[in-house]
Specification:
It is built from no helices and 11 strands. By secondary structure, the chain is mostly beta strands. The protein folds into 2 domains: 1-94, 3 Solenoid (Pectate Lyase C-like); 102-189, Pectate Lyase C-like. A 7-stranded parallel β-sheet has the order 2-4-6-8-9-10-11, with no helix packed on it. A 4-stranded parallel β-sheet has the order 1-3-5-7, with no helix packed on it.
Length: 189
Amino acid sequence: MDTLISDREFKKINFREQPLEKGEYEKCVFSDCDMSGLDLRQFKFIDCAFATCNLSLAQINDTSFQEVSFKGCKMLGLRFDQCKTFGLSFTFEQCDLEHSTFFNLKIKKTAFLDCVLRSVDFSGCDLSGSTLLRCNLADATFVGCNLEKADFRGSVHYRFDPSANKMKKAKFSLEGLPGLLTQYDIAVE
């Protein structure tokens, strides 16, 4: 049986030196912690907050993230597509998610605010109603996505084919429109 840990704050802990106990974490706060490369398989995080933590290359197979917020976190190369999908919900603010994967996930109404999403794979995602505001989307992949009512205003460097995605009522800034026209090989000045 997994251990239940609730209403605790973990501050400035290097969990690579002092391992995090496997279990269910509810209403916990993780601040300035190093969790990079950790094996977090089958952990459960419910209504938790992560602030300025490093979770890069952590193994998150069968990990539950329910109502979890990440702010100012370094999260390089995470495979969110291998998480438990039941109740999957999170928000990201000022996070670096380079080279992470959200392949085929249903993450409607997810907020990505001021994030670095370089080379992130969103292929097959349902991002309907999501906000991707002021994000760097260089080399991010959007193919077969539901982007209906998604808000990309202020985001930069995205390049994807609108005909390869559902995009009804999606919002974009005028400056970002050239990224939606690259497949036509035209110059916008």
